[in-house]
Structures are given as C-alpha cells and as structure tokens.
Amino acid sequence: MEREKIVVLDFGGQYNQLIARRVRECNVYCEVVPYQKAMAALTAEPPKGIIFTGGPGSVYDPASPQVDPAVFSLGIPILGICYGCQLLAHNLGGRVTAAQDDSAREYGKTETYFDTGCRLFRGLPEKGVTWMSHGDYMEKVPDSFRLAAHSDACPNVAICDEERGFYGVQFHPEVNHTENGTAMIRNFLYEVCGCTGSWRMEDFCKSAIASLREEIGEEGRVLLALSGGVDSSVLAALLAEAIGHRLTCVFVDHGLMRKNEGDEVEEAFRKWDVNFVRVDAEERFLSKLSGVEDPQEKRRIIGAEFGYVFRDEAERFGITNRDFLAQGTIYPDVIESGEGDADVIKSHHNRLLPPEVVARFKGVLEPLSLLFKDEVRALGRELGLSEQLVMRQPFPGPGLAIRILGAVTKEKADTLREADYIFREEIARAGEDKNLSQYFAVLTNARSVGVMGDGRTYDYTLALRGVTTTDFMTADWARIPYDLLQTISGRIVNEVKGINRIVYDITSKPPATIEWE
Ligand code: XMP
User: Fold this and answer.
1) Catalytic site residue 249?
2) Under DSSP, is residue 373 helix (H, G, I), strand (E, B) or coil?
3) Best of 348, 349, 469 for a ligand 1 pocket test (most atoms within 8 Å of beta carbon)
C-alpha cells in the first residue's frame, strides 16, 4: 500500500519538529528534510503534501535559504509557514520587503480574521488569535493568489491559490498560542492533500523494530545505555522486541542518583527478561568532577565518563566493533544541545560521547531522537510498559550533578538526596504528584544567615522546582499549595543538616530552563 507521507522542508526555524509532531498528531506520517535536499527527497518518494517551515532569514537576502523552483511544478500541495509563506510569495511573483514601520512587523498574539471559504480554514471560527513572529512584509501577493486572512495591521496574513493547492500563512499554526492551529494543519492534510490519517504509533513501533533489525543484522549485539528513566526504558523494550537477548542493558550508577533510585531501577529490571548489568561508578564520576564548577564542563565530563564506562563494559561482555551502542536520546535533547542551526542551550549528556568511544562501535542507535516526550510515552504504552513506568517523571542523565550548583562533592550530593527525598515524599503524600510533570530540589551554592535554637547558622539555600508541561520544551511553574510548601520547607530545614533556607522557583521555561544547570 502506498504510504501517505508529508515532507516538512526545514528552513531553520525554531518550531520545525513541532510542525512534524502536529502532522503525526493528525495521524499522518511525516519526515523533516533540510531544504538543501528538497528535490532528492521529493522525487524519491513523492509525498502527498509539503510544508515549508519558518526560518530566521529574509527571502530577498540572496544568502538566505532558498528552494529549488522545480518544487512548484511537481503538482504537490504546499503550505508555507512564516518564512515559508514569504518564500512561496517571493518565488511565484510576489514581493517581500523588510517592514518599514513597526506596524507591519508582528510578534506575539494577534487577533486574526479568516475567510472560512478557503479550505485551510474550513469549518473554523471566522476570528481567532494567531502567533506571529515576522519582521518582513508581503508587499505584493502573487497574481494567482488571493487573501484568506487578515489582521488589523496586515491585510495578507494568509494567502491561497486553491487551484494549485498552495497556501501561505504568516503566523505559526503549530504553536499552542495559535487557536485552532492544529485544525488548520489537519485541513491542509485532509482537505487539501487528501490524506486519510491512517498512521498510528503502532506503525512507528513496527517500522522502528523493522529498521532496527535491518541495521543491527542477524548477528549484531547492542549495548544499551540504561538510566531507568522513561526514554531508555522504552528503548530497552523496543530493542528487546527487535533483537531479544542480543541486547545488554548497562545501568551506570554514578553516585548522583536520587535516594534509593539505583536499587529501584535494579529491582525493576531484574524482573524483565533482559540482560541487565549494574555498574557502581560513584568513585569514578566524583573524582572526575572534583572542583569543577562550570555547568557545561560538568555535563561534558559526565557524558564522556558514561562513554568510557560503556566502552569498558563492552570489552567485558565481548561486544565488538560489529556491534552497536544505543541511547534513549529524544528530540529536546538534540535540539537543546544545539544541533543544526539551533543555539546551544545545554548539552544533554547523551550528545557528549567521546569520538573514540563512538568509533569503538559499529554505530550509535538513537531511534527515539525525533520524538517528543509524550510521544515516547505513547510508544511505551504501545510496547506494553506499565503506566507507572511510562509516566515516571524525567531524571536527567547527569543526575544530581546539575542540581548541585558549583562544585560537586559526596557530602553535597548526600545533603541534596535527603532534601529531595523529603520533597518527593510530601508531594506524593499530598497526592500532588499527579499534577506535576517534574519536581525536584536544587542545592544552590548560596549560603545565608539563619537562626536555629539560639544559635546563628550560615548554611545553604535549597531551591524547590515543580513544573507542568507535556513536551518539556516549554514549561510552566507549578502552583503547589502554600500549605504543602510550608510543610516541606519545615521538614527539610529541621531534618537536613546544612540547609537553613528554602525558596520556590517561579519561572517558566522559557525564559528559564527546567533544570538549573
Ligand atoms: P531543561 O533543563 O533543558 O530540561 O529545560 C528539559 C528536560 O530534559 C531533562 N534533561 C536531561 N535529560 N540528559 C537527560 O537525559 C541531560 O543531560 C538532561 N538535561 C536536562 C530535564 O530533566 C527536563 O526533563
């Protein structure tokens, strides 16, 4: 059966994988392709439709990403978003210029009026908020196009040539701030491209298993970097399905796990029918981290040390250079580590393997690297993992090292472990865990004066962090009830030596990130 596919042509925007994710949410398979490879991808397996993403460039600047004009003659519908819309206009006889005055530049939420006679907006309200982020202005719309949406400041917020199936929107339908944005994408897929929406997570699961089998071969073995978190556990289940006992799961206890966590992971995986190994590497990690204060440097050291442990374990188990290393890397890890044209926010540990470790294996398998967290969870359910495992809150690979600001010591790790445990215990006791996506304590490097009993103290400040999110790319701080915060604060200051002040983090992501380092 012919596969229904959409190609998302990537022009370097921030939300490109989010567009892909929305397409998958509409049950249509999709691939993100860099714009330079457009024609090869579009002719090898012609898709039902093409989406041009946004991007930071200006179409009239010759150095900005351009598209091969042949793409407009393929007879395939196109939806251009933001920069993609301007590219469409620029190539088909319109004119795009830098906005001369501020009124033509639009950023943020904008009241927008739609022509619901246009297939893109069919069945949707005539008015709604859209999320704009463009500094360029479409001065002249191409001849064959008509206007399909406007705002108070801009007459051509959306354009269409329904005959050819070409649509352009100056706003971002893929972000949550745009009302009915996913419905607009669905209209493009179903009404314009004629997709039927037959793709399911089950299909992803089957095709991921098939391609893992093909890549690993009949004899190949895999060493999986297992943290016991959602991502690597889902990958363990996927690989176990694909290659059975040719999989070895290596769980590295770096001494920076939460209280009891190492034992819990071990207990859970001993029950699975997989090869499971626990490596106690506390000494090794703590000595490498000694005196290191810079967050990126800590991440680099931890990422590298993980790699060296995997290399040593591979030697121990006779895993050769015909075999593979697998990691549960997911999309936010990739994008925040600054791959492609994106800025480095923080290097996630699994992007920091030393080259000599990578070279030791035939390849590194990262089959989840295009999925968002909630998609990984859906895949876990598809593979039959328990709800408890699938819904576990994330715990970062570098562990408490990035929750201890400044240099890491065993003493600080023990202090933080105790405080974090009390926080988690009280949250669970109050039944608040179901309202939080992630919550943890951070040992700040700040010390301040307090008074306990009749004496002066000069101890550390602990920060509590609780967030709500689904994809972990953006997050809001959680409204934990004050009384509960009071109980937690009281218990920690009383029970944990070295902490005399508690603060609660009330910043969302962006502008902050979820972890502090
Ligand atoms: P940030 O702090 O970037 O975190 O907002 C987003 C999500 O990713 C987790 N995180 C990591 N996970 N390795 C991981 O496996 C890492 O190096 C890492 N850094 C952050 C973080 O806990 C949150 O869920």
Assistant:
1) no
2) helix
3) 348
- Our answer to whether residue 375 is catalytic in this structure is no
Q: Which has the closest alpha carbon to 191: 83, 79, 85, 81?
A: 79
The residue among 64, 67, 133, 130 whose CA lies nearest residue 99 is 133
Instruction: Write out residues with Cβ below 6 Å of ligand 1.
Output: 332-333, 336, 346, 348-349, 394, 396-398, 438, 472, 509, 513-515
Expressed in angstroms and rounded, the spacing between residue 346 Cα and the centre of ligand 1 is 9
- Residue 214 burial (CB < 10 Å; 0-12/13-18/19+)? exposed
Beta-bridge partner residues of 98: 136
Q: What is the pLDDT along the chain (517 residues), one digit of tens a residue?
A: 467 899 999 998 878 888 999 999 999 989 889 999 999 999 988 999 999 999 888 888 888 999 999 999 999 999 999 999 999 999 999 999 886 655 556 667 889 999 999 999 999 999 999 988 767 778 899 999 999 999 998 889 999 999 999 999 999 999 988 999 999 999 999 999 999 998 899 999 999 999 999 999 999 999 999 998 999 999 999 999 999 999 999 999 999 999 999 999 999 999 999 999 999 999 999 999 999 999 999 999 999 999 999 999 999 999 999 999 999 999 888 877 776 656 678 888 888 999 999 999 999 999 999 888 889 999 999 999 999 889 999 999 999 999 999 999 999 999 999 999 999 999 999 999 999 999 999 999 999 999 988 899 999 999 999 999 987 888 899 999 999 999 999 999 999 999 999 999 999 988 899 999 9
Structure tokens at 410: 């065993």
Looking at ligand 1, which atom is closest to the CA of residue 513? 5
174 Cα: distance to centroid of ligand 1 (angstroms): 23
Which residue matches tokens 């990984």?
376
CA distances from residue 506 to 201, 318, 395, 467, 488 in whole angstroms, order as listed: 35, 49, 20, 9, 16
> Is 177 a known active-site residue?
no
Contact call for residues 136 and 98 (beta carbons, < 8 A): yes
Question: Rounded to an integer, what distance in angstroms lies between the CA atom of residue 170 and that of residue 162?
Answer: 17
**CA atoms in the 13 A half-sphere facing the CB of 58:** 12
| Annotated catalytic residue within 30, 82, 85, 118 | 82
Residue 459 near residue 415, CB atoms below 8 Å = no
C-alpha distances out from residue 182 to 172, 186, 255, Å: 10, 6, 44
Ligand 1 centroid to Cα of residue 371, in Å, is: 15
Nearest Cα neighbor of 350 from 441, 252, 283 is: 252
What one-character-per-residue DSSP string does 142-166 give? -TT-EEEEEESS-S-SEEEETTTTE
CA of 361 to the centre of ligand 1 (A): 26
Q: Which of 232, 393, 514, 517 to mutate to test the pocket of ligand 1 (most atoms within 8 A of CB)?
A: 514
From 255, 257, 233, 254, select the one nearest 303 (Cα to Cα): 254
Of the candidates 172, 254, 348, 349, the residue annotated as catalytic is 172
Contact 112, 123 (CB under 8 A): no
